[in-house]
Amino acid sequence: MPAKPVSKTVARPASTQSSAGKLSAFVTDLATIRARARKHIEDGAITDSYRADREAVIKLLNEALATEIVCVLRYKRHYFMASGLMADAIKAEFLEHANEEQAHADRIAERIVQLGGAPDFNPDVLSKRAHAEYVEGTDLRDMVKEDLVAERIAIDSYRQIIDYIGDQDTTTKRLMEDILAQEEEHADELADLLNGWTGG
Question: Are 60 and 164 in contact (CB under 8 A)?
Answer without folding.
Answer: yes
